[in-house]
From TrEMBL:
<keyword id="KW-0408">Iron</keyword>
<dbReference type="InterPro" id="IPR036942">
    <property type="entry name" value="Beta-barrel_TonB_sf"/>
</dbReference>
<dbReference type="InterPro" id="IPR039426">
    <property type="entry name" value="TonB-dep_rcpt-like"/>
</dbReference>
<keyword id="KW-0813">Transport</keyword>
<dbReference type="Pfam" id="PF07715">
    <property type="entry name" value="Plug"/>
</dbReference>
<keyword id="KW-0472">Membrane</keyword>
<dbReference type="GO" id="GO:0006826">
    <property type="term" value="P:iron ion transport"/>
</dbReference>
<keyword id="KW-0998">Cell outer membrane</keyword>
<keyword id="KW-0732">Signal</keyword>
<dbReference type="InterPro" id="IPR000531">
    <property type="entry name" value="Beta-barrel_TonB"/>
</dbReference>
<keyword id="KW-0675">Receptor</keyword>
<keyword id="KW-0812">Transmembrane</keyword>
<dbReference type="Pfam" id="PF00593">
    <property type="entry name" value="TonB_dep_Rec_b-barrel"/>
</dbReference>
<feature type="signal peptide">
    <location>
        <begin position="1"/>
        <end position="25"/>
    </location>
</feature>
<keyword id="KW-0406">Ion transport</keyword>
<feature type="domain" description="TonB-dependent receptor-like beta-barrel">
    <location>
        <begin position="254"/>
        <end position="779"/>
    </location>
</feature>
<protein>
    <submittedName>
        <fullName>TonB-dependent receptor</fullName>
    </submittedName>
</protein>
Length: 813
């Protein structure tokens, strides 16, 4: 790697800054933040890893409730998605595009950012588990590859949600409630309460939290009509002789139809068996329900859409987790496991597919001569056959059942030795069952067109062997499994008082399976029940009954220099990985046989990261300034493509490109006076597509920026606290900025996303244990381009909530 003049300048500046502040010059000292990024407790300023920690206090000050609330204060973290529980998360610019949730189960690649709930990975393709932030100890963000300690999906980084644990020493309780009014939208209400109860003092305690948060809608589904457009869909030639029915959405018209509700509870119990051994058991349940959509169509109007089929989501999960920790001689021992069961049911308007789908005429139009249909479309050479295209309303109803069973065993050598070892074994058993029903045929169309009810292929390993409802023209019935074993370790050596070296390694072995079927309705007037038609993935396009095996290893090396007690500088070399997989549409395309063959499988993509970071405590403890400069090489990038023309409307994945990423990220906290505290974070990310090698995916030109990543992004927050008589009063302001970005690296989907700035304000007071606060979010009513997508074949923009005024109350025992 080239010597970076900026790195040298940073080091010189750090040394000068530290020398300029004698410890006795200041009396204000920031509170220590404890993190577990290295899988053992340590001060944030003492771990040679880039970590951004949002503590429980910070989360409360920012009034964080869900994923959207906290990710906007993390400038090196970006997301692409279309609403709660429908996001893909990216760190340090390692982003390509967000797959549609309608296909994430059948064909979504493994995310390259790992999300953890306590000790369990909860990552799933295309769908972040949007855990409501109630009674949370902190959220840790670990940018860059974390593959040695955190493994699969920690390719670009890791986000950890760490809950508050039972405290056996004292009773505690509290509650929060809020109400808010969104401009031109509906009201929002939240309530949550927690209780910590030592059943046996210093031995056994129980902690519980419950919450209910309802967010009012702000997007309108307005009246409209829709019909097939031969100017867009070439399978409907404009000079042909046919008449059309028109879809009308009058029964679905509604203002502010995109509401969301989080309901959940968590209970945990901790027991100390003796002075050295303890066990903890936790159970959590959450149900997320949404209606409508969270992206608007600028061609229709500001915060408006035209939808013709019900849009709704139910996303519920149960998690049970357990931990046993103690000592065996000089060694610290920890065993932790968890079982996650997640069920997602979603309904989506799919009417926009009419004007891109290659088979639409087959599913929508009648014919006096059945031979008129050619390859599921209209024969453009025969234009005299009179026919009628029926109601074009189309919809999607899908269900995903996700289970994950994880176990991890770790050993730690004594922390006070010059050589320290962390070692462990990890097991992960992941299964995703997806059933996707595409309603191409509204009521009456099936009978008029003579379609039989769709049935699964009899020889396939199906989740649901039953005939599908009337109107289902196509469906997926697919199971994906991933079983992984890993062994990991890290050795840290204090070479001298100032120099430390740490070497980590992780070896992994995983089996990936993909089976089931994709099923089509059969031809015109084929009887009451369909015969086998579609793909059995045990035998089609090169698939087999044997799982795909992937193994390998990733290293990490960190060298740390501590010239003073208040300054640490570290250099890191690390690698990251994520699994490959099977392509649902592998092989030669049926709709356009001249199109290049789609690969049956796709490989892992490789990430190499070089990083120089620092952590400085200045002004006698009144300032903490941390940051990192990094360079990333990303090869064989897994890129998904939704191809309606050549590949039978299938999404597939290819190792399509290489890229390079250069960046700087920094954050600070400054207790400027006894009353004023400033928080800031900045990310500069320069991404570049350096090579393309796919024959089946047309990407943006070499030299283009990667997706969903502004070159500059930052946040700044100021909080002022003072006393009026016995009342503690505070005022706070926060600003967030994100520069221009692009929505995708796939040429057909690439759109420019404009820069934006948002402002939040709040004022409040504490009287004894009671708190009341008035706040406004998005003061200037900025309309942020969070994600510009064409996933329903109609360009739409996911945006932030309009200006919202609110009041909240809390009590802390």
């Amino acid at each position: 790697m080239k010597r970076n003049p900026l790195s040298a300048a940073v080091l010189c500046g750090l040394a000068a800054s530290v020398a300029a502040y004698p410890a006795a010059a200041q009396q204000r000292v920031l509170e220590e933040v404890t993190v577990t990024a290295t899988k053992r407790e340590a001060s944030l300023q003492d771990v040679p890893i880039t970590v951004q920690a949002l503590t429980g206090e910070t989360l409360d000050e920012l009034n964080v409730g869900n994923f959207d609330d906290y990710v906007r204060f993390l400038p090196n973290v970006n997301a692409g998605g279309r609403g709660p529980g429908q996001n893909e998360v990216y760190i340090r610019g390692m982003s390509i595009d967000a797959i549609t949730v309608m296909l994430s189960g059948a064909q979504g690649s493994t995310p390259n950012v790992a999300m953890y709930l306590d000790e369990q990975p909860i990552t799933a393709p295309g769908r972040n588990l949007d855990v409501y932030v109630a009674d949370m100890e902190r959220i840790e963000v670990l940018p860059g590859p974390q593959g040695t300690l955190y493994g699969i999906s920690s390719q670009a980084g890791t986000i950890r949600m760490i809950t508050n644990k039972p405290d056996v020493t004292e009773f505690d309780a509290g509650f929060k409630a809020s109400m808010a009014d969104t401009k031109s939208g509906d009201m929002s209400y939240t309530t949550e309460a927690f209780l910590n109860f030592p059943v046996i003092e210093n031995t056994f305690a129980v902690r519980a939290v419950v919450y209910n948060a309802s967010y009012g809608g702000y997007i309108d589904n307005v009246a409209g009509q829709y019909q097939l457009d031969p100017a867009v869909n070439t399978t409907l030639p404009a000079d042909a002789d046919y008449s059309q029915a028109v879809a009308d959405n009058a029964v679905l018209v509604e203002d502010n139809f995109n509401d969301a509700t989080y309901r959940g509870a968590r209970i945990s119990a901790k027991y100390w068996f003796n002075d050295e051994w303890s066990g903890q058991l936790t159970y959590m349940n959450q149900k997320l329900e949404t209606d409508g959509v969270f992206d608007y169509d600028p061609a229709v109007g500001d915060l408006q859409v035209e939808r013709y089929f019900e849009d709704s989501l139910e996303d519920e999960f149960d998690q049970i987790a357990w931990t046993l920790e103690g000592r065996m001689g000089a060694l610290e021992v920890l065993y932790t496991g968890a079982y996650l069961d997640r069920n997602v049911e979603q309904s989506v308007d799919y009417t926009g597919y009419n004007n891109v789908g290659g088979f639409i005429a087959y599913y929508t139009c009648t014919y006096t001569n059945p031979d008129y249909i050619v390859n599921y479309g209209i024969d453009p050479n025969v234009i005299t056959d009179v026919r009628t295209c029926l109601d074009p309303t189309k919809g999607f109803k899908g269900q995903q059942d996700i289970t994950r069973n994880t176990h991890e065993f770790r050993l730690f050598s004594p922390q006070d030795k010059s050589v320290r070892v962390t070692a462990g074994v990890f097991y992960d058993d992941f299964e995703l069952e997806t059933q996707d029903d595409y309603f191409y045929l509204p009521p009456g169309n099936s009978e008029a067109l003579g379609f039989a009810q769709n049935a699964p292929i009899s020889t396939a390993r199906n989740i649901n062997p039953n005939v599908r409802p009337v109107g289902v023209g196509f469906f997926n019935d697919i199971t994906r499994t991933e079983e992984q074993w890993a062994v990991f370790g890290e050795v840290t050596w204090d070479i001298s008082e100032q120099w430390t070296a740490a070497l980590g390694w992780r070896w992994y072995d995983m089996d990936l399976d993909f089976y089931g079927s994709s099923n089509f309705t059969n031809g015109i007037f084929q009887g009451s029940v369909d015969s086998d038609r579609g793909r059995d993935y045990d035998s089609t396009f090169g698939h087999s009954t044997e799982p795909l095996n992937i193994d390998g290893s990733v290293p990490k090396l960190t060298v740390t220099w501590r010239p003073t007690d208040n300054l640490m500088v570290y250099g890191t070399y690390s690698e990251g990985f994520r699994s490959g997989g099977w392509n649902r549409g592998g092989g030669a395309p049926s709709f356009n046989p001249s199109f290049p063959t789609v690969p049956v499988t796709y490989d892992t993509d490789d990430v190499i990261n070089y990083e120089l970071g620092w952590k400085a405590t200045l002004a006698g403890g009144a300032v903490q300034w941390n940051g990192a400069v990094y360079y990333v090489e990303w090869e064989d990038m897994q890129t998904s493509r939704f191809d309606p023309i050549n590949v039978s409307i299938l999404t597939f994945i290819d190792n399509a490109a290489d890229s390079e990423i250069r960046g700087i990220e920094t954050d600070f906290v400054w207790a400027a006076t006894d009353n004023l505290t400033l928080h800031g974070a900045l990310a500069y990310i320069d991404t570049e597509l350096t090579a393309t090698q796919s024959t089946v995916i047309e990407l943006a030109p070499v030299g283009s920026e990667l997706a969903l990543t502004p070159e500059f992004a930052g946040t700044l927050r100021a909080r002022y606290d003072w006393f009026l008589d016995s009342m503690q009063v505070y005022a706070q302001g926060a600003v967030q900025y994100a520069g221009d970005s692009w929505s995708s690296i796939v040429a057909a989907d690439r759109r420019k996303q404009d820069s934006y700035t948002t402002v939040d304000l709040s004022v409040g007071t504490w009287i004894d244990n009671w708190n009341v606060e008035l706040y406004v979010r998005n003061l200037t009513d900025e309309r942020a381009d969070l994600f510009f997508n064409v996933q329903d074949d109609i360009p739409r923009i996911t945006t932030n909530r309009p200006r919202t005024y609110g009041i909240r109350f809390s009590y802390d025992y």
